[in-house]
Amino acid sequence: MINKETKEWAPVPRFLDAQQLTKDVTAITDAARGKNFSNFMMAMALLKSYKPFEGPKGLKLWDLFRKFDKTWALTKGASNKYGKTSPERTYEDAIQRRAQDPWNFLFIAGMWFQDLFNYDFRRTEMCIIPYGTQQGEISFCAYNTGVGWRQIIENMHKNATVAEWYKNHGKHEIYAKGKNVNLNTYEHSLVIDAEDAARVRHLEHDIPLTAAEENRLRRKKALEEQAKVRAIYEELVLKKPQPAVVQIGSVSDIAKAIPANFTNANKPVSIAPANGNGHSNGHGASSEKKTEPAAEAVAGD
User: Quick check: is 85 in a domain?
Assistant: First the structure.
């Protein structure tokens, strides 16, 4: 819970025993008593689980009661006090009434069957939210978690990619690169954080997300295929030898592979001038037979 004005915040489980409160709320709901008595029991359960010295400094017990009343509409006329949340809500409900509450809840929920290493089929079978797909009805929990049935079904019945759809049906108008949007008024209260706006999106996969990325990936694959076909054509039709790339290693690796000659170490090497076809007499063989000295032993052999 965070205060929008003072920026004070604290995790809710720190000052509220969430597990005990959940058990008490379940017991109150299963009792099915009247609304007034249920609200009274709810207030008692909240007092039982509340830890006042662990919460934010500016949070009062009355603020906590109002927060629960605003969330669950416990008291009479809650929609008039805090604003409506139904489709009939107005600008006054959303901004002037509900925004008056200085405290905000940030709720993060995790499913206990969302990962493959701890996937619980029995818990998935308890899901009561049905999804209608081309393959039939499937539960919400099984459709959006686990092995990825959503991606499988969508790819099975996909009739076009984003790039193909834009190519055949056109693309909606995009207002970017300084293009003005025809609006009645340009006044707004939006505040953009420069650090967030300059943040670069990092992807952990190579799946294209936009039409431009799809076109770029398609062009890259087409160029690679053209290069392969061209190489085969030059080799089989034009009889052009293909350059073979041989890795000979670094200079240090070559020096290690040459037998050591400690007597001539650190001396310049002289190369005889070439004559004819590269030999001394010009006929492909040397006129003088020279006995080559035996290679000295390499250090370490």
Answer: yes
Residue 166 CB contacts under 8 Å (≥ 6 apart), including other chains: 211
Could you tell me if residue 182 is inside a domain?
Answer: no
Compute the distance between CA of residue 190 and CA of residue 197 in angstroms, rounded to an integer: 13
Number of domains in the chain: 1
For residue 30, being part of any structural domain is answered with yes
Calculate ∠ Cα 114-116-118, nearest 5°.
Answer: 75
Distance from C-alpha of 81 to C-alpha of 75, rounded to nearest angstrom: 10
Determine, yes or no, domain membership for 175. no
- Determine the distance from the C-alpha atom of residue 187 to the mean position of all C-alpha atoms in its chain, rounded to a whole number: 34
Encode pLDDT of 219-252 as tens digits.
999 999 999 998 888 888 888 887 776 666 666 6
Contact status, residue 242 vs residue 235, Cβ threshold 8 Å = yes
User: Scanning the structure block, which residue is given the tokens 């108008």?
Assistant: 173
Tell whether the model's pLDDT for residue 130 goes beyond 60.
yes
CA distance 64 to 46: 9
Q: Read off the tokens for 211.
A: 């039409």
Domain that holds residue 34: 2-104
* pTM reported for the whole predicted model: 0.39
